[in-house]
C-alpha cells in the first residue's frame, strides 16, 4: 500500500477521470449497522482543499465533506476501479482515527 499526499491523490483523480466516487457503509471501519443504518452514496465530482486537508464529494446540490485528513493510501486497483483508504483524525481527540474507503470507478 502506497501512501499518497492530498496533491498526489488529486493528480490521480485528474488523470483517471472516474465517472463516480462511491462511499458504502460496508467498506468503512466504523460499523454503521450497529446504529441501524447503512448507506450507498455515489458522487459525480470531487474537489480538494489542500490547507486544511479536506475532500468534497459532490452531486447536484449535495456535498459530503471528509476533513481532518491525516493520510491517504491505495487499497486496491483493477482495470475498472480503484479503492483508496482516507484516514481522518478525530475532532475532539487527535489520537482517534476513522478510515473511509472511497471507490473510484
Short description:
The chain is mostly beta strands and 105 residues long.
Give unreliable regions as ranges: none
Q: Could you report the average pLDDT, rounded to the nearest whole number?
A: 90
Helical amount: 10-25%
Determine the N-to-C terminus distance.
19 Å
Helices and strands, in order, run as: EHEEEEEEEE
**What's the tally of helices?**
1
- Gross geometry: globular
Tell me the Rg in angstroms. Answer: 13 Å
Class based on secondary structure composition and strand pairing: mainly beta
Order the strands across the largest sheet as they lie in space: 1-7-8-9-2-3
* Secondary structure tally: strands: 9
Description:
The chain has 105 residues and is mainly beta. Helices cover 10% and strands 51% of the residues. It has one helix at 6-16, and strands at 3-4, 21-24, 40-43, 45-50, 53-59, 62-67, 69-77, 82-89, 97-104.
List keywords for this structure.
51% strand; six-stranded antiparallel beta sheet; mainly beta; globular; 105 residues; single chain
Amino acid at each position: 500500500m502506497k501512501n499518497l499526499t492530498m496533491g498526489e491523490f488529486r493528480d490521480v483523480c485528474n488523470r483517471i477521470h472516474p465517472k463516480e466516487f462511491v462511499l458504502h457503509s460496508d467498506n468503512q471501519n466504523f460499523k454503521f449497522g450497529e446504529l441501524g443504518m447503512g448507506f450507498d452514496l455515489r458522487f459525480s465530482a470531487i474537489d480538494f482543499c489542500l490547507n486544511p486537508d479536506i475532500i468534497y464529494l459532490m452531486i447536484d446540490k449535495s456535498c459530503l465533506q471528509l476533513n481532518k485528513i491525516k493520510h491517504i493510501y491505495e487499497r486496491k486497483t483493477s482495470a475498472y476501479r480503484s479503492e483508496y483508504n482516507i484516514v481522518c483524525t478525530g475532532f475532539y481527540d487527535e489520537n482517534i482515527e476513522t478510515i473511509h474507503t472511497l471507490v473510484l470507478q
